[in-house]
């Protein structure tokens, strides 16, 4: 039975008629109990394929369809909402907006309440699921205060509450740290052992090594490659690169404690400590020197305080008694906010203009020099062809480039990015890596929060590791292609 | 589920007993609505300033009693500032535009007991209980779903605005006050455009989530924690009604 796509074609409906098809008549049979990865470049149709399995396409997102999708032998369209909800679980791409309630326990209970399950049974399932996903310690907490990795765990838990026979994951790895990825792999592995059909759409594949039965590579709405797990394991790194895919065995981010002193002139943070109101100290810094230029990663487990550290550097968050110096002189909080730049994980929050060019002109003092600089940046970042377009019509990778161009407009000494690779395919990830290195060469300190080790190993000179409520700066020792690379600051100071 | 459980136990070192007594939040939504209605009546029928102040103090005391001390002190401090500002406006009535500000402040101050009570009722009411209580009040299914989406959306909107504002602060070379004084219309546009953008998207996503989680206006729902009207709810609602009546008679 399982899931069956029969010559399925989908074209979303735009304001003036159907858009180019997202799926071009795919045939795919996923038998019961198989664990399948759908992958491929951005826009290849993997999310659309997932949405067709649980009826969001065309039931919710308006689209023209041809052919059909069968779940357990019947067309998806014939199931009622409740029937589908109990058969097919769905973990959404964005853990921030997929919750319907405000606290973890209610969120887990919500789908069961909708199905009219008795409270005693719901309580039993909550305990079981919490143990399965490792969120017992989160049960009493509100959702707003959770880190993105913790939210992802809750989302997976909620999808498991109805005990579905089919579970769909849309980019589940986007915000997860190594430990949470291991949790995800463990959960998928045990679902597979229990015979649940699992379909994952993702760019990253490394974490699924060992639990997959099959990999389906899509491009432009078609299935281009359909391989068994053994076949995939036999391919070398080049095979993945040629198809625009992430690597199956991403390099680890290797680093060692910095040997020589960091040259003066960089960012210096002293005696800062941060605690959420009413909680213990989350992190503290006695003395941290960062280089004046270079790409520095910020890594650590989910919820360890990466985002708060960056918000502190940006001056959005005050730590009493903290001293921050840049290039030897004091750098107070308000001035930091005025001078630093930030590229949010969701760049959309920052896009206000009517066109890409207009976007770059919002913020800095208007004038001829600003306009010239904007044109120059557009050309350099390969955005000049898009200069007249509305920023919100761009693809994810393009929006992010606009975000980085905005940061460059400000000529900020420190540029911070939050999880910039979530949702980016291999090509966009490499382009971003190159762009950040280029921005750093021009004399900016680029701080990047990420869990993506493949991206980190290709991009960072240094890494701030947060663990045991402390921060350590370490020099990255692995290079872009697995070789060793001398970090730029160490070259200057052997 | 055994396999999952065992996998998870291998992975997660922390175990905690999660079996807690599922006590419904207090006050119950129905009692809470009576309390809010009582305060609304107060702001309409009690005419004196003293009466309004006493009603606010009463609502703040209820907050303290129900263990929301932090919020109570904050709300109280804001109230004091508003009162002072309102008095100052009365004194400076001759200055242009100040009377308008005074009128606006008076409206806020008059309705303050309603805000405090509303905050007290909704501050930690889990969604499941709100839905179950409304179902018991025989709110029709479709309306219930709409109300719930609105209820879910309000805090999200507040969060979104906060993110957008911090983005704007980092974006601009000038401090916010100068931007707002010089180009208020442009600034408004720069706040409203992304908010609308996000609103549209969140509304879509929320609705998709509701569909995926099987929220069906016509189906019978159960509640993990069944809301109950208990003596404490009756007492709270009764106290509010009595206080309003008392204020009307004594100082109204």
UniProtKB/TrEMBL annotation, chain A:
Swiss-Prot/TrEMBL keywords: ATP-binding, Cell membrane, Hydrolase, Membrane, Nucleotide-binding, Repeat, Translocase, Transport
Subcellular location: Cell membrane
Record-linked InterPro entries: AAA+_ATPase, ABC_transporter-like_ATP-bd, ABC_transporter-like_CS, ABC_transpr_CbiO/EcfA_su, ECF_ABC_transporter_ATP-bd, P-loop_NTPase
Keyword DNA-binding: no
Membrane-related topology note: Peripheral membrane protein
Molecular-function annotations in GO: ATP binding; ATP hydrolysis activity; ATPase-coupled transmembrane transporter activity
Listed EC numbers: 3.6.1.3
GO cellular component: ATP-binding cassette (ABC) transporter complex
Domain ABC transporter: 3-245, 267-493
Keyword tRNA-binding: no
Function description: Probably part of an ABC transporter complex. Responsible for energy coupling to the transport system.
Family: Belongs to the ABC transporter superfamily.
Protein name: Adenosinetriphosphatase
TrEMBL record, chain B:
Transmembrane segments: 49-69, 76-95, 101-125, 137-154
GO cellular component: plasma membrane
Swiss-Prot/TrEMBL keywords: Cell membrane, Membrane, Transmembrane, Transmembrane helix
Keyword Phosphoprotein belongs to the record: no
Protein name: Cobalt transport protein
InterPro entries (alphabetical): ABC/ECF_trnsptr_transmembrane, ECF_transporter_component
Compartments, record wording: Membrane
Source organism (scientific name): Propionibacterium ruminifibrarum
Record-linked Pfam families: CbiQ
PANTHER family in UniProt: SLL0384 PROTEIN
Membrane topology summary: Multi-pass membrane protein
Domain of life from the UniProt record: Bacteria
CDD domains assigned to the protein according to its UniProt record, in alphabetical order: EcfT
């Amino acid at each position: 039975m399982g899931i069956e796509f029969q010559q399925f074609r989908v074209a979303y409906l735009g304001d003036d008629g159907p858009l180019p098809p997202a799926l071009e008549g795919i045939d795919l049979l996923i038998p019961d109990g198989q664990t399948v990865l759908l992958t491929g470049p951005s826009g290849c149709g993997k999310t659309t394929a997932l949405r067709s399995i649980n009826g969001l396409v065309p039931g919710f997102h308006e689209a023209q369809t041809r052919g059909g999708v069968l779940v357990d032998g019947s067309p998806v369209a014939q199931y009622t909402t409740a029937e589908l909800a109990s058969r097919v679980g769905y973990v959404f791409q964005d853990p921030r907006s997929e919750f319907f309630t405000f606290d973890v326990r209610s969120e887990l209970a919500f789908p069961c309440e909708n199905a009219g399950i008795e409270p005693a049974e719901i309580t039993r399932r909550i305990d079981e699921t919490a143990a399965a996903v490792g969120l017992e310690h989160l049960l009493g907490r509100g959702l707003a205060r959770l880190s993105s990795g913790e939210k992802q765990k809750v989302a997976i838990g909620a999808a498991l509450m109805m005990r579905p026979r089919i579970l769909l994951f849309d980019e589940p790895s986007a915000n997860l740290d190594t430990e949470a990825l291991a949790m995800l792999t463990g959960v998928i592995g045990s679902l597979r052992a229990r015979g649940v059909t699992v379909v994952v759409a993702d760019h990253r594949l490394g974490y699924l090594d060992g639990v997959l039965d099959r990999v389906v590579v899509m491009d432009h709405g078609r299935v281009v490659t359909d391989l068994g797990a053994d076949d995939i394991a036999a391919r070398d790194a080049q095979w993945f690169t040629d198809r625009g895919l992430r690597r199956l065995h991403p390099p680890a981010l290797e680093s060692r404690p910095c040997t020589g002193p960091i040259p003066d002139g960089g960012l210096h943070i002293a005696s800062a400590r941060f605690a959420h109101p009413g909680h213990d100290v989350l992190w503290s810094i006695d003395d941290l020197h960062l280089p004046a230029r270079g790409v520095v990663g910020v890594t650590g487990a989910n919820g360890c305080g990466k985002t708060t550290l960056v918000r502190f550097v940006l001056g959005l968050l005050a730590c009493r008694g903290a001293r921050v110096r840049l290039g030897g002189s004091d750098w107070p909080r308000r001035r930091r906010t005025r001078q630093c730049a930030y590229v949010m994980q969701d760049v959309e929050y920052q896009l206000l203009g009517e066109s890409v060019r207009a976007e770059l002109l919002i913020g800095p003092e208007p004038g001829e020099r600003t306009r010239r600089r904007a044109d120059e940046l557009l050309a350099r970042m390969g955005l000049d062809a898009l200069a007249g377009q509305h920023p919100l019509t761009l693809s994810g990778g393009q929006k992010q480039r606009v975000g980085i161009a905005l940061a460059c407009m400000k000529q900020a000494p420190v540029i911070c990015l939050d999880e910039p690779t979530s949702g980016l395919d291999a090509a966009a990830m490499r382009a971003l890596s190159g762009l950040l290195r280029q921005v750093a060469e021009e004399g900016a300190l680029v701080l990047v929060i990420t869990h993506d080790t493949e991206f980190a190993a290709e991009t960072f000179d240094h890494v701030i590791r947060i663990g045991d409520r402390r921060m350590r700066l370490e020099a990255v020792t692995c290079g872009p292609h697995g070789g060793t690379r001398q970090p730029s600051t160490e070259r200057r100071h052997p | 589920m055994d396999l999952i459980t065992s996998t998870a136990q291998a992975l997660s070192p922390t175990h905690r007993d999660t079996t807690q007594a599922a006590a419904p939040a207090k006050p119950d939504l129905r009692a809470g609505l009576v309390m809010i209605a009582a305060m609304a009546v107060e702001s309409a029928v009690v005419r004196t300033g003293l009466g309004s102040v006493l009603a606010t103090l009463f609502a703040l005391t209820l907050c303290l009693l129900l263990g929301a001390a932090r919020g109570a002190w904050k709300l109280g401090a804001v109230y004091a500032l508003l009162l002072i500002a309102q008095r100052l406006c009365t004194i400076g009535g001759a200055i242009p535009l100040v009377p308008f500000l005074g009128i606006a402040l008076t409206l806020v101050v008059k309705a303050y007991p309603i805000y405090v009570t509303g905050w007290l009722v909704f501050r930690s009411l889990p969604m499941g209980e709100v839905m179950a209580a409304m179902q018991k009040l025989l709110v029709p299914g479709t309306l219930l779903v709409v109300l719930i989406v609105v209820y879910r959306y309000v805090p999200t909107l507040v969060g979104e605005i906060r993110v957008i504002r911090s983005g704007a602060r980092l974006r601009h070379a000038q401090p916010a006050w100068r931007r707002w004084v010089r180009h208020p219309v442009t600034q408004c546009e720069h706040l409203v455009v992304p908010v609308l953008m996000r609103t549209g998207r969140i509304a879509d996503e929320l609705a998709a989530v509701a569909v995926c989680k099987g929220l069906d206006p016509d189906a019978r729902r159960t509640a993990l924690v069944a809301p109950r009207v208990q003596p404490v709810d009756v007492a709270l609602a009764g106290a509010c009604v009595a206080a309003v009546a008392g204020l009307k008679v004594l100082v109204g």
